[in-house]
Design a protein that fits this description.
The chain is of the alpha/beta class. It has helices at 7-24, 36-39, 41-56, 68-77, 93-117, 154-161, 184-194, 225-233, 241-253, 269-275; strands at residues 28-33, 60-65, 84-85, 88-89, 122-126, 133-137, 146-151, 165-169, 171-173, 179-181, 199-204, 222-224, 258-263, 282-285. Strands 5-8-2-1-11-13-14-12 form an eight-stranded mixed sheet, sandwiched between helices. Strand 9 and strand 10 form a beta hairpin. The radius of gyration is 19 Å and the shape is globular.
Length: 287
C-alpha cells in the first residue's frame, strides 16, 4: 500500500489539502460517532487516526459518542431484558446505572485511550461532569430517558483551550441528581450549537440521504432545511433517517454552520469530508 504512492504524489496530496487545512485551523468541529464505525475495530482505529490528524493541524475536535450495542451486550450479560417503546429504550433505575457504567466508563475511556495511543491528547467527560448536559424526564413510560433542558458548555471550552480533544459520553443529570440516558445525535446537536461549531459530522451506517434508499448512487450531496422538510413530506427521508435529519436541523438552528450526514463505514471518511473537495455524505445547510 505505502509503496504505491511516490513521494511526489504524497507532496501533491498535501498541497491540495492546504486550503482546507487553513480553512479549519482553529475552528471547532464536532464529530458524532457511533454505529458500525464503533463496532469494527479497524474502522475505530482509522476514525481515531483521523481525529488526531485534524487535532495536529489545529482543528478543535470534539468527539461525542454513543454506545447502544455495548449497552445492549452488557444488559444481556447481566441477564436484563431490553424493552423498546416506539423505538426508544425503556430505561429504569437499574438500566440507567448500566448506561452510565458502559458509556461514561468503558466506552468513553477506551476511546480516550485509543486517541492517546495514536498521539493525541484527549480528556473524557460525561454530560454529568460540570453539569454539561441538564435534562428532564421525557415520558414517565420510558423512565430515565431525558429531554435536554440546558447545556453548560464551559467544561468543553476549557478543555479545548487547554489543547485537549474532549470525548463526551451522552448521559445527563437534573437538579435533583437523577441521571438520564440521552440520544447521542440530539446531544451532539446541542453541544455543537452551544459551541457554534463550524461543522458537525454525523457518522452513520449509510452513505447519506438517498433519493432511493436502496441505491447508493442516488446520494443527495447538499440540501437546505426547507428542501429537507419537503423530503420528509414526500417520504424520501424515512425511518431511522428522520431523527438524524431532525438533529441536523436542530444543530443548524442552534448556530452550527453546516452539518454532514456521512458514512462511517468508509475508511477515513472524516478526512475525505474535511480535507478534499469531494466531500463525503450529505451536507445540510440553513439555505
Amino acid at each position: 500500500m505505502h509503496n504505491s504512492f511516490s513521494n511526489a504524489e504524497r507532496a501533491e496530496v498535501l498541497t491540495q489539502a492546504l486550503p482546507y487545512i487553513q480553512r479549519y485551523n482553529g475552528k471547532v468541529v464536532v464529530v458524532k460517532y457511533g454505529g458500525n464505525a464503533m463496532i469494527n475495530e479497524q474502522l475505530k482505529e482509522q476514525v481515531m487516526e483521523d481525529i488526531v490528524l485534524l487535532w495536529l493541524i489545529g482543528v478543535k475536535v470534539v468527539l461525542v459518542h454513543g454506545g447502544g450495542p455495548e449497552i445492549s451486550d452488557t444488559m444481556t450479560r447481566l441477564g436484563k431484558k431490553t424493552e423498546f417503546v416506539n423505538g426508544l429504550r425503556v430505561t429504569d433505575k437499574e438500566t440507567v446505572d448500566i448506561v452510565q457504567m458502559v458509556l461514561a466508563g468503558k466506552v468513553n475511556k477506551s476511546l480516550v485511550n485509543l486517541l492517546e495511543t495514536k498521539g493525541g491528547k484527549a480528556m473524557g467527560i460525561s454530560g454529568i461532569d460540570g453539569r454539561l448536559i441538564e435534562a428532564e424526564m421525557k415520558d414517565s413510560a420510558l423512565g430515565y430517558v431525558g429531554n435536554i433542558t440546558n447545556i453548560n458548555i464551559g467544561a468543553v471550552t476549557d478543555l479545548l483551550e487547554k489543547g485537549y480533544i474532549p470525548v463526551v459520553s451522552t448521559i445527563a443529570c437534573d437538579k435533583d441528581g437523577n441521571v438520564y440516558n440521552i440520544n447521542g445525535d440530539t446531544a451532539a446537536a446541542h453541544i455543537a450549537g452551544a459551541l457554534e461549531a463550524e461543522r458537525m459530522l454525523m457518522m452513520t451506517d449509510i452513505a447519506g440521504i438517498l433519493r432511493d434508499k436502496d441505491d447508493p448512487s442516488t446520494l443527495i450531496p447538499k440540501i437546505t432545511i426547507d428542501e429537507a422538510k419537503t423530503l420528509f413530506e414526500t417520504g424520501v427521508i424515512s425511518g431511522g433517517m428522520i431523527p438524524k435529519v431532525d438533529c441536523c436541523i436542530e444543530a443548524l438552528t442552534h448556530g452550527v454552520n453546516n452539518v454532514i450526514i456521512m458514512d462511517g463505514r468508509i475508511p477515513h471518511s472524516i478526512l475525505m469530508e474535511l480535507l478534499t473537495d469531494e466531500g463525503a455524505g450529505t451536507m445540510v445547510t440553513k439555505g
